[in-house]
């Protein structure tokens, strides 16, 4: 059976994640309030951020930065700023 959540990013009922993708309290909040679709959007943005800023995920500062960006993207409706990134023309 599919789980639905009211996605705080997309502002609509949508298919929820199958399991908690992130540890701790924040992970529980994401599981309860973020859809698969919004999580996939974040994953794409996160990959771009890691590549653009050459983040080392072993570095606690890099992980803190990514978590801050993730919260802003998923819960505050902010888009991720990627310096020099130009979306492909449709």
Layout of SSEs?
Elements: E1 4-7, E2 12-15, H1 24-33, H2 36-52, H3 60-75
Antiparallel strand pairs: 1-2
Helix pairs in contact: 2-3
Give your account of this protein's structure.
The chain is mainly α and 90 residues long. It has helices spanning 24-33, 36-52, 60-75, and strands spanning 4-7, 12-15. A two-stranded antiparallel sheet has the order 1-2. A hairpin with a 4-residue loop joins strand 1 and strand 2. Helix 2 packs antiparallel against helix 3 (60-75). It starts with a strand and ends in a 15-residue tail after the last helix.
Task: Supply database-style keywords.
90 residues, mainly alpha, YggX-like, two-stranded antiparallel ribbon, 3 helices, 48% helix, 9% strand, globular
Assign the CATH superfamily.
Fe(II) trafficking protein YggX
The first-to-last residue Cα distance is 36 Å
Helix coverage percent: 40-55%
Can you tell me the residue ranges where pLDDT is under 50 for at least 5 consecutive residues?
A: none
Helix count equals 3
Task: Report the sheet-strand fraction.
Answer: 5-15%
Q: How many strand segments?
A: 2
**Number of spatially distinct domains:** 1
CATH architecture: Orthogonal Bundle
Largest sheet: spatial strand order: 1-2
Q: Strand pairing plus helix content: what structural class?
A: mainly alpha
Q: Report the sheet with the most strands, covering strand number, pairing sense and barrel closure.
A: 2 strands, antiparallel
- Reported by name, the CATH topology is YggX-like
Quickly name the level 1 CATH class.
Mainly Alpha
Shape: globular
Radius of gyration: 14 Å
Mean pLDDT: 92
Family: Belongs to the Fe(2+)-trafficking protein family.
GO molecular function: iron ion binding
Protein name: Probable Fe(2+)-trafficking protein
Function: Could be a mediator in iron transactions between iron acquisition and iron-requiring processes, such as synthesis and/or repair of Fe-S clusters in biosynthetic enzymes. Necessary to maintain high levels of aconitase under oxidative stress.
């Amino acid at each position: 059976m599919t789980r639905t959540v009211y996605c705080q990013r997309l502002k609509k009922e949508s298919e929820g994640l199958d399991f908690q993708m992130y540890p701790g309290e924040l992970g529980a909040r994401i599981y309860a309030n973020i859809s698969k679709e919004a999580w996939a959007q974040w994953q794409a943005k996160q990959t771009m951020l890691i590549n653009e800023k050459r983040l080392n995920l072993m570095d606690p500062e890099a992980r803190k930065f990514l978590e801050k960006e993730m919260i802003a993207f998923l819960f505050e409706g902010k888009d991720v700023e990627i310096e020099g990134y130009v979306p492909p023309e449709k």
